[in-house]
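Give me the fold.
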Amino acid sequence: MSTSLPRVGWIGTGRMGFALAGRLLDAGYDLAVYNRTRAKAEPLAERGAKVVDTPADLADRDVVFIMVSAPADLAAVTSGEGGLLTHPEVAPQVVVDSSTVSTEASAQVREEAARRGTQLLAAPVSGNPKVVRSGKLTLAVSGPRDAFDEVQPLLACLGRGVTYVGEGEVARLVKICHNVFLGVVMQSLVEITLLAEQGGTTRAAFLEFLNDSVMGSTFSRYKSPALVNLDFTPTFTMPLLSKDFDLGLAAAHDLAVPMPLAAAAAQLVASAVGAGHVDEDFATLILEQARRSGVTLQSEHVAVDDGLTPEAAPQ
């Protein structure tokens, strides 16, 4: 790869992809983008990106990112008609796939890429568009170490943390472990928040204390507005969390790792899905905890800092 800035392609400009592609533009990269619904990519053209008609139009780029939502979509944009890896003459040097897909789907694309002389990095992310804008996105990356070392400066533009976790598809399991922890922590957080409220304080006061203590975290602060004001605009839904629990527990079974806390939390999340919490944010776990406690919650209608002040992409 040239010592100059690599020419970058991006496939998939949904909410997350759009925000991340924008950070690359802010950092000065030559960026071309593809999205199945072209109109969703057009605003990036106003910021300097080139919008192309097919994934294959990005085959001459040095590095191509992919962020699509399902295995079928990943297969379509890589090996389907007009796919990235179907160009008869050229192929990117490195593909960085941040799609939500299984280990098996990722491995299949890795094999197809290898046949074209392309190295694949699996790079699932932790965050949402607001986290991206705040500069706090993190990535777990697996695949060939030399490919990672080449594109690490590019990955660093996307957020604050880029961690190489190993060869092959291990980053997919790392992301599942992350999301299992997400669910366990949220269930614990709603339990103690409700307990404190029932003891006489407000949710806002308790969470302010918690967030300022050594036990506070970026996550607990970020979720505090939802728990205080009961605004469940979705960032991650309960069915998606339940799916990740299933994947995590299946991996735990295969690898003989007992996970009793995760198993208990998975049952509570599945119960919440069964109660109809399917389109809201998974912070609605607090409503189910309140229901089991015989409590009806009300919004406290107070301003709560979520700790995600936007920042510019690194230059």
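The first strand starts at residue 8 and ends at 11.
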